[in-house]
Structures
1.
Amino acid sequence: MKALIETMVAPLVDHPEDVQVTVKEEDDRLTYHLTVNQDDVGKVIGKNGRIAKAVRTVVYAAGSAETKRIYLDIM
Amino acid sequence: MRQVTATGQTVEDAVQSALKQLNTSRDQVDLDIIDEGKKGILGIFGSKPAIVKVSVAQNPIQKTEAYLKEIIAELGVSVEVETIVTDKQVTFDLSGDKIAILIGKRGQTLNALQYLVQLVLNRYADKRFTVVVDAEGYRGRRRETLINLAERMADKAINTHREVTLEPMPSYERKIIHTALQQHKKVNTTSAGVEPNRHVVIKPSYS
């Protein structure tokens, strides 16, 4: 899942080396936290959050196999 | 990506040797000089060969196809991707088992992939492309469904003398509805609301 998020986001940003994903596991959910270079924030959120929404949709589709609810935090 | 590392007495020699191995020409490759090499004394003592890494440059469409394939692989689905390129549009047609996970409810996953792929392609490419990601003829089936829906809802609007509001849809799906009802004499269609909640409204034409 981490690799999926990195694969998806890296080509969208100007500083792919600064793309980081961390995971936090709680009782009933997995929270993935995505951080990117300060200059690239807009590129992963997009106009009205369109890019963020698309990234989340794909992540949740991948998460449908998991038993825990998945969340994706951006920044 | 095809790439080779080659050595030679000079950088130029190394590059030529690499191009020969790859069987390509200089304008089709990316060059990476690892070591410029040293002549040494009298060309013998302390000389070091030049080392270059040469890789065949991929065109934007191939790079984008690779991006889409990587994402799908990470999703744990194995699919074939067929890429169809026309003047302004690139279609990636996916086929394989377990394709349903890639489509998602009402195609939302497929639409998300399509949006991301379009962004990436237009970042690489120097002209603008429209991207369609299709899976097992989903877009065609969806089109049929939408045309049927449009006709049923047009009848409903006529019979009830009321506007019928459809659920929010992406622009190309709304367009299918508008086009389907364009020739219809008894109804007019408009779009209302702001993305991502923009939706089609079907009105009886006399009201």
2.
Amino acid sequence: MILKQHYLLLGFLIALTSIAVLFSLLSGSAELSLNQIFLHFLSPQNGLTNQILNEIRIPRTLAGFTVGSLLAMSGVAMQVLLRNPLADPYILGVSGGAAVGALSAILLGASSFLLVNAAFAGAIVSTLIVFGISNQFGNWSVIRLLLTGVVVSAGWGALLNLLLTTSPSSTVRSMLFWLMGDLSQSRVYLGHFLLITLGLVGGLKISRSLNVLSRGELISLSLGINLNLLRLILYFSASLFTAVAVTIAGSVGFVGLVTPHMLRMLGARDHRVLIPASALLGGSFVIIADSLARTVIAPQQLPVGVLTAIIGVPSFLIILHGSSTKR
Amino acid sequence: MTKLCLKSLILSVGNKTLLHDLSMTINKGERWGLLGKNGAGKTSLLKCLAGILSPKGGSILLDSIPMKDYSRNQLAQHIGMLFQEGLSSLPATVLETVLLGRHPHHRSLIEDSLTDLQMVDSILGELGLETLKERKLHTLSGGALQRVSIALLLAQDPKIFLLDEPTNHLDIAFQVRLSHILTKRVTQTSASFLLATHDINYANQFCDKLILMLENGKPIVGDKQQILTEENLSQAYNCKIEKFSKEDSFIFYPA
């Protein structure tokens, strides 16, 4: 059910996202002031400031938001689909497939355009393999899906280790950055925002059904849910969102797992609230993590995936502790 | 209004035929019990009537229309089922969960309707859950969880209630309260119910008609007086069962 506190939560998250965006625009090796940023948006002028914002910081901020919100929404979908609180966007092997594609491309010295496509192709191949095997006899139970996904994931993991250990050491560093998630090469386009919009609107449309499915499959059937269709929608949309996110930034960890949990602990259990809230929190989470990634040991940059874990672990534990003492 | 008609129903799981050619009708306002030993197919029959499991043969008519012609949502407005399975592990409060019972009737995507909330409130009261309504499911006792599942079914407000072991985890007072709540629905709204139970005496006390599943897949169906005999029960459960009478009531015991 939707309560007044949920609107407050969404309002707070919108504010958080705005602050995260500003923080990100201010962070970097070149010092920019708040004034310069506002001036830039009011009356864009040519010059260095303009160039830094338009070509580096704004695209990177947008990419961070896109990755975070797609992963968080995908995490919500996976957790409902598998009804498993440990589920995350990567659990069924999408990121493993993408990683094998991406690392092979890096090994072959492919351009970044090819790398993106190789990663996306890997993700899609993995999605279809898992779906094909687990759905072979028309009845894909959750356990079957989960086991297939985890095993396929493990297979990709082995291939990744093979690639890492046999590649020349000069390429291993960029491979590791890709594996940990890195936004320094990332660009997003209009299509990405359409995908987020699709997630929000489509998510709202099926949100009541997701509330029911969270309680189990039998009860969903008995309450009139078209279970097969809903599962297909969840599986393929979650896989697509994850595939797109990892092709933008590599496997940024932790966002898809903890964002939905944090919000549920803060009371957003209804999917009508949880989905948009996840998009906002996941997005701002990655933006903040990435801003820190390029400033904490500047001029060196860290992979954003390291920072999402460093920030995510303590904040998750604090909220977990808070919610269990309140009960 | 709603009646459920089974025509030559054949039901099997794996290689085992659970039901062989069952024809019967559940009319509005009837109270049915479903008895049979472990693995006799009680749950499968209920799931079949709920449209969750397809029969091997025969047909089920809901108000003279084949059940497979209904959409899932339409079906959910007529038939609801209480399952033995729990309500999964993602967090939710009692109130949120019971409110899900209104899902088949929803029109608005955003708003929770006030009438739904009032209805759910009164159901929570009926089942003694009003003080627990903000509690998370995973903090509840087995009996309270069972009452949440029952409350959800009552909120769904179907015309035909299918209940699989509804007295599981319930203490004796709530067992009686449950039968009163169900009987009230039957008399006031012409609903009907079919409850599967292991408790022969509970079925005897609160049902008028019975289905007794047998090993040969040919259940005995009819008024409880005809069915509840020592021979029938002993045969069905493969265990000697005796009837003890006291004045005009009686109970069954294993001998």
